[in-house]
Amino acid sequence: MLSDKLKDLIKNLPHQPGVYLMKDKTKKVIYVGKAISLKNRVRQYFQSKKNMDAKVRAMVSHIDEFEYIVTDSEMEALILENNLIKEYKPQYNILLRDDKTYPYIKVTLNEYFPRVLKVRKVEKDKAKYFGPYTNAFIVNETLEVIKEIYPIRTCTRDIKRSIEKKERPCLNLYIKKCVGPCTGKVDEAEYMKMIYEIIDFLSGKSEDMISILEEKMRQAAKNLDFEEAAILRDKISSMKGMLERQKIVSASTIDQDYIAVAKEEDLSCIQVFFVRGGKVVGRENFIFDKSRNSQAEEIISSFIKQFYMSVNYVPKELVVDTDFEDMQIMSDWLSSKKGQKVQITVPQKGDKKHLLDLVRKNAFEAIKQKSNLKMAKLERTVGVMKELQEFLQLDEMPVRVEAFDISNIQGVDSVGAQVVFVNGEKAKKLYRRYKIKSVDGPNDYASMEEIIRRRLKHPDLPDLILMDGGKGQVSVAKKVIAEEGLSIPVLGMYKDSRHKTLGLTTESQAVELSKHSLIYRFIASVQEEVHRFAISYHRSLRDKGMEKSELDEISGIGKTRKMALISEFKTIERLKNATLEELASVEGMNKKSAQAVFEHFRKGQKSD
C-alpha cells in the first residue's frame, strides 16, 4: 500500500522531462533516473509489480519519498542524471568506478615546427591525435623510438619569436637530438617531411621506421657498441610488440569503440576495444560487482552514459552488442559533445559482428579471471577461518580474531598491541595500543595480564584470542578471561630459535603446523602483524620522548638545534656524555649554545 506522502508526491508530478531521485527513510538517495515524462515514468514504479524484475522490486520497497528536477529537454535530463549519479553514488544504480584518463599521442600540427608528445586530453585545436592507448608504457616507448630516429624539437618555445630574437638554442641541438628550428636555418618542408613520416608510423605504416632501427642496430654491432645495439634491439622488440597488438580488424578507417557485455551470476563485465584506423590500439574491461539482477541493456546504457561523460575523446561510431533504451538520444548527446555525427550501431552479421563476438569472449574471460581471484581471496580469508574452526573444534566459525603482543627494549617503556582480523582480513580501524600503567620493569606476563583485562572491559569481544608467545602467555590470558566470567578460546603463537613461526600452543600442548597449510600462513601473518604494530608503537613513544626532552629547558636550543642534536647523538645518554667540542661541531650549533647544553647536563650530574 502506498503511503499518503507518496500518493501526494505522485499526484503533483508534471508531464515534463526531468530527473527523479528516490530516497529511503534516512533521506539517503538510493536511485537516480531520468524521464521524458516524469509523471508517467515515476508512476510506473508504484503500479503492478508483476512484470518488475527483482532489483526494481527491492528498490521500490525501500522508497520513502522522492524529489525531482524538471529540465528543458531529454538530453539535459540525460546529462543531469549522470552528474547526480556521480555525486550520490546510489546503491541501485550501476556505477562505473573507473575514472582513469587514457594517454594519447599528439602531433601538434597547429604549431610552427610541430612536436610529438603524450597527452591525456583531446582538444579541438587542429592537432592530430592518436589513441587512446590503455598502456602508458607502450606510449612512452613509442615516443622514445620516434625521438631516437627523428631529431624533432621537444621544447615549448615560440619558434618564430626565438628566430626573431636570435635566442640561443638548447643543448639538444649540440647533442644532435634536435635539428634546431629555433636557429632559423632549418627548412620547414624538410622538417614537415619527418612529421608526416611519424604520422604514417602512428597510423600503422611502420615498416620504414623498423627498417631504420634495424640498420642502426647492425651498424652499432659492427662498431662493437654492443650496449647501444642492445638498446636498439629492445626498442625494435617493443615496437613490434605494439604493432602485433594493433592488428587490422576492420576495413573501416573511421574511429570506432566496440562494446560488449558479459554476465555470470553476480558479476558483469563491459569490455571495450578501441579501434583506430582499422586497428585495435587498446582494450579495457570494467567489472560491476552488484549487478546480479540488472539486464544487459541497463548495464551497457549506464556504462556509455558514465564513461563517455568523462572521457576526452569520442569516436565516430560505437558498435554495441545489444539494443538499449535511449540509443537515439545518447547518439545525439555524443554527437553534440564531439561536434560531428556519432552513430551507435548493433550489427547482426559481418565483420563488425565477428569482432563484437571476440570482444564478448574477452569479457567472459575477464569475469572468469575475476571469479578465480575472488575464490582465491575467499580461500585465504573465510576459508582459513573455517579450517581454524575445524582444527580447534569450535562450535562456530571465528569471525573476529584478536592477537596481542608486548614490546619493550631492555625492559624500558613496555607497551601492548592488539590487532584485529575480521573474516580473515585485517581490520586496521579496530587495532588498539596500550601503555602499560600498573607494571614496573620488564614483566611481560604482568603486562599482558593488564592489557587483556583492559580489553575485556570493552564491547565486541573476539571469537578467538591469539597470544604472541607460548604457554605462559596463554595461561595469563585464560586466567583473566575466567575471572571476568567469559568463555573465549585462547592460543599462543610460538616461534623457533630463528624467530620464525612454528605453530600454535595451548596451556599444555604445542602443535607444529605445516608450512604449506592455510592455517600456518594465516597465523604467521597475524604474528608478524601484531609484532610489527607493537614495535612501531614502542618506537613512536621513544621518538616522542626524545622530542619532548630536557633540551626544551635549555636557553638558545630551539626546534632546529634540538632535532640536529637528536639526529647526531640518537639518545639523551650519549648527549649527556658528549664533550664541548662534539656539541659545537653539530650543524647549527655555536660555542655559546654548545656551552649551554654542556653546562645544563653537568649541573644535573652534580645535583644527582
Automatic annotation (TrEMBL):
Gene Ontology CC terms, in alphabetical order: cytoplasm; excinuclease repair complex
Residue span(s) of domain GIY-YIG: 15-94
Domain of life: Bacteria
Compartments where located: Cytoplasm
A GO molecular-function annotation: excinuclease ABC activity
Stored Gene3D superfamilies: 5' to 3' exonuclease, C-terminal subdomain, GIY-YIG endonuclease, UVR domain, UvrC, RNAse H endonuclease domain
Chief localization: cytoplasm
UVR domain mapped to chain residues: 207-242
Stretches assigned to the UvrC family homology region profile domain: 258-481
InterPro entries named in the record: GIY-YIG_endonuc (IPR000305), GIY-YIG_endonuc_sf (IPR035901), GIY-YIG_UvrC_Cho (IPR047296), Hlx-hairpin-Hlx_DNA-bd_motif (IPR003583), RuvA_2-like (IPR010994), UVR_dom (IPR001943), UVR_dom_sf (IPR036876), UvrABC_protein_C (IPR050066)
Gene Ontology BP terms: nucleotide-excision repair; SOS response
Key words of the record: Cytoplasm, DNA damage, DNA excision, DNA repair, Excision nuclease, SOS response
UniProt record similarity statement: Belongs to the UvrC family.
Known role: The UvrABC repair system catalyzes the recognition and processing of DNA lesions. UvrC both incises the 5' and 3' sides of the lesion. The N-terminal half is responsible for the 3' incision and the C-terminal half is responsible for the 5' incision.
HAMAP family from the UniProt entry: UvrC (MF_00203)
Subunit structure, as described in the record: Interacts with UvrB in an incision complex.
UniProt name for this protein: UvrABC system protein C
